[in-house]
Structures are given as structure tokens and as C-alpha cells.
Amino acid sequence: MDSVPPSDRLRDEAFRPAPLRLLAERVGPAGLDLVAPLALGSYNREIPEEFRLPGAPDRLALVVGNTRALWPLFLEAIGRRPDLRRASDPLDLYVEESLTRALEGLPVLEARFAHDKPPRRVAIQRAADLAGMASLSPAHLSVHPVYGPWIALRAMVVLDLPISGPDWPAAPCWEGCQRPCMEALERALEVGWDPERTWRVWVGIRDACPRGRAHRYPEDALRYHYAGDRSVLAPEGLRARGGREAGSGPSFRGVR
Ligand code: B12
Which of 240, 103, 222, 79 is closest to 159 using CA atoms? Predict the structure, then answer.
């Protein structure tokens, strides 16, 4: 079982409003296992105008993300659904479908995906920081207290409901840290971005973070995310890795 810091547990028990719990219960089975609340006003105050979302400042906004728990569930869906495998971006579509289903019946004012392009882009790393989900690191990665940088941020939802409880922003991940991510970022900037040749150097920025190492993405997930290698979704590949990747071993359990 992964340990959840006591402060997180207290915060959850005291302030998690019912709609947050409901959404977390609905998206969790799809692998979207991180959900955190913030006041819409806190977000809108902190970000440049083009990223602001409509709604009163006291409305409940929710940031939705995932750990590596998503990957085997996504592969399972790919195995079942050839249409998903053929989509222009299978993972983005999987996330869109899962969240849209989960939002049914909720009073949604706005829902934006992290992959939405301007003018619908949302500054989701800032939102995750303000919501206390993950600290925005000096290397531009969002670092969760337990999962470290091995998370993705997927969507921000605003509900027409008041938020209860105060904002609880993330503790800065760099405090008391030697910041090895900075050297790794410099190395990556030196070699530049090339999805065929240099992507592993970019993974090095995540690997440099001392937090969440036990929650590193599996190799095929890294190839998919960084190198854009869609062969990891091919039926032969899925079958070959079957039991191991698509299973739900203890390391994928117990995540929030
Ligand atoms: C555009 C974008 C990029 C651009 C950034 C350059 C730019 N400014 O245009 C490029 C293409 C370079 C990029 C690269 C990567 N990205 Co990117 N990206 C985004 C995206 C879609 C929007 C960022 C944005 O405009 N934010 C709004 C402004 C207001 O925020 P900001 O705080 O001012 O700016 C942030 C970014 O622009 C970025 N940034 C700005 N300048 C630079 C310069 C460099 C060198 C780097 C590395 C980053 C960077 O960091 C800032 C602080 O976080 C977000 C998703 C989202 N909706 O936020 C994902 C996102 C930030 N990216 C992400 C990832 C994983 C990556 C990559 C690792 C690539 C990949 N294939 O997975 C790389 C490498 C990043 C790294 N540090 O290692 C994840 C981060 C997850 C995490 N745990 O932190 C996000 C959240 C997407 C997701 N689904 O989770 N990305």
C-alpha cells in the first residue's frame, strides 16, 4: 500500500466536499486517480488572462490527474476497442470519454482538458499547485508529495457549487531539496528535443527527482509519452505483455 501523508488524510477528511468524492469515485476506475479541489477565484487570480475560466470566485474547481495507475487500464481499453487504438490521440480520447461519463448529472460550468489548445488552454500546473495536488518545480514539472513527477494532469472542471474549506496549496517541492532536476533540465536543453534521439535525456529530468521513484512509469508508457511510439499499443505487443502490463498487481493498487 502506498502511504498517504497524514496531512493529506486530515485535509481529505475535513474538506473533501461530496461532489469531489463522487467524481473521484467515478473517474478512479478509469485510472484518473488524483482529484483535488480549489476555489475558481484562487486560480483566476494567479494566472494570465487568456487562461481564466468563467464562473464566480467561490465556485468549486477540481483538478483531475493520474499516476501510472492509468496505464494498464488504458491498455485494457485499447485491447477491447480497435476504434480507440485508431484514434488520432488514443490516450487523450480515453481521458475525454472517461471524464465526460463521470461528469454526467453534475452541475458542470466548465470542463477543460490539459491537451486543449488555445484559446481553451488551461494553466493546469498552476491549478494543481494551488489545489495542493502537486508543487510546480523549478524544472517545470509538477511534483506530487508521494508520486513525485510521475503524474500527469488531465483536466480542470468547474462545478456550479460553492467550495467549502480554505485553499491548501502544495508545499514547495524544492524546499530542503538539492534540486538535481535543474542539472538534468540543463542537460536536456543542451541536447534539445528530438523524439527519436534525445527523449531519454528528457526522461532524465523526472528520474532526477528524489520523490516518487517507486512510482516511475513503465517502459512502454515512457516510449508512448516521450517518443510517441504507438507500436506499444499494437495487438501483438499487448498480447506479449498481457499478464504483466494489463494486470493489477499490488504496485498499481492503493493509489488515490
Ligand atoms: C505547452 C506545453 C509544453 C511545451 C512547453 C513550452 C511552452 N511554454 O510552450 C513543450 C512542448 C516544450 C512541453 C514539453 C514537455 N511537456 Co508539456 N505541456 C504543455 C502544456 C500543454 C501547456 C503549458 C502551458 O502553456 N501552461 C500555461 C502557462 C501559464 O503555464 P506556465 O506555468 O507559465 O508555463 C509552464 C509551461 O509552459 C512550461 N514551460 C514553460 N517554458 C518552458 C521551457 C522549458 C524548457 C520547459 C521544459 C518547460 C517550459 O513550464 C511552465 C511551468 O510549468 C501543459 C498542459 C497544460 N494545459 O498546462 C503540458 C505539461 C506541462 N507537459 C507535460 C509534460 C510531461 C511534458 C514533457 C515531459 C513531454 C511529454 N511528451 O510528456 C516535455 C518536457 C517538460 C519537462 N520539463 O521535462 C506535463 C507535465 C506533467 C508533470 N508531472 O509535470 C503537462 C502538465 C501535460 C500533462 N498532461 O500532464 N510542454
Answer: 103
Residue whose C-alpha cell reads 516521450 in the numeric block: 226
**Cis? peptide before 195, omega within 30° of 0:** no
Which residue is listed with cell 511534483?
143
- Which residue ranges make up each domain of the chain? 6-252
Distance CA 77, CA 208 (A): 31
Ligand 1 within 6 A of 209 CB?
A: no
What would the pLDDT profile of 169-226 be if each residue is shown by its tens digit?
Answer: 999 999 999 999 999 999 999 999 999 999 999 999 999 999 999 999 999 999 999 9
Ligand 1 nearest atom to the CA of residue 128, by list position? 86
Give the number of the atom of ligand 1 that is nearest the alpha carbon of residue 139. Answer: 77
- The whole-angstrom separation of Cα 51 and Cα 108 is 18
Q: CA dist 17 to 23, 35, 87, 197, Å?
A: 10, 12, 35, 46
Ligand 1 and 125: CB distance under 6 A: yes
The overall longest dimension of the chain from CA atoms, in Å, is: 51
The reported pLDDT for the residue numbered 256 is 25
Q: How remote is the CA of residue 250 from the centroid of ligand 1, in Å?
A: 31
Question: Residue range 28-43: average pLDDT?
Answer: 96
Amino acid at 6: P
Q: Ligand 1 pocket, 44 CB below 6 A?
A: no
Q: What does the DSSP assignment read for 33-72?
A: -EEEEEEHHHHHHHS-GGG---S-TTEEEEEEEE-TTHHH
pTM to 2 decimal places = 0.89
